[in-house]
Fold each of these.
Amino acid sequence: MTRAIRKTARRLGNTLASCRKYYVHPWVVESYLSGELSGLWKEAERLGNDGMDGLSQAEKTVMLLLQKGSTETHPVQ
């Protein structure tokens, strides 16, 4: 997770801290740390193109995370 945020920060010309604070929603990090994101990655892989034609596996994983998040309460910090 840190490597991805660091790479993004470099691309945007920001620090790691500001990138994480302003561009990464806290429940994305929580999902990664809890292992849930890994499960969603595997679920996206199993889905194939079912209803998500043209999306990469990473994009499908984000869609699953957003769908799951929309049914739960995740306060913005």
Note: Residues 2-70 form one domain.
Amino acid sequence: MFEESEEQLQKTATFLRLARKRRGWTQQSVANRLQISLDTVKRAERGEPGIKTGTLLTFLALYQRLNAFADVIDPDQDCIGISLANERLPKRVREQKYDRDF
């Protein structure tokens, strides 16, 4: 795992733990609300890398932070991918000789 990924995983774990505590919820009540095991809640709050993406998304939804994740995965925000795609654009475009209008 990349070092940056491990750091973000620990920050995510800290967020999950603090969000739960700030709401005054126990780990068991979060497990019940999300319909997951208590062990999964504990592992997520420790920052273990084996948590499923779907489970993480349900945590974010519970803590009303799912929109922040949507911003992260927005393809229009992929600056490197956009730059690479722009480099591959043709320098010139010729008009097609045949009609593609159906």
Note: Residues 3-87 form a domain with the 434 Repressor (Amino-terminal Domain) fold (CATH 1.10.260.40).
Amino acid sequence: MRRCAERLPPFSPRQSQAGVVVCELTTHVKRAFKYRFYPTDAQAAELSRTFGCVRKVYNMALEARTTAWYQRQESVNYNATSAMLTAWKRTEELAYLRPYAVDAAAAPGRE
């Protein structure tokens, strides 16, 4: 059985001016995970529709913000963009956006 000390990263002890032993961490642990999924045909179609709706909303919001800035030098914040999205979802021509969670796309540049 391994002891706890064996699982710790290596330290380089040194003595300070006061005679106290100071340990410094000498290594860094970096980890990364990659995941891959294989959607079924129905899942792939749903993902395609969702990403298409998100792309449409993002482009519309970006156009609205760009127009507001270049025509009126007005900055459109997230709340105004979200209100525009709500209005867009209520129109008949963009009714297909209603079942999708496209709210995050309404804020171009907001991370």
Note: Confidence is low (pLDDT under 50) at residues 1-8.
Amino acid sequence: MSKTKTIKRKIHVKLLTQYCKGCGLCVNVCEQGKLNLEAAPNERGVLPVSDQPDIACNACLKCVTMCPEGAIEIYEEKNGK
């Protein structure tokens, strides 16, 4: 009898808000609802994207693909790092 081991992946979303122009394309494609636009503008007058820490990212990379500014990075935690 074989046993199945479930491995839980720890995915991190890194938002490079200095590059975000607030277009919202990433928000529209995020199936998990992890991304949203801030309610208040930043010092550049832009509503930058933010992530919801209580919502897990499934690493579909749609947000990364859609971002015209390259302001989103997704990476998997390996060995506690």
Note: The chain has one domain: 11-76.
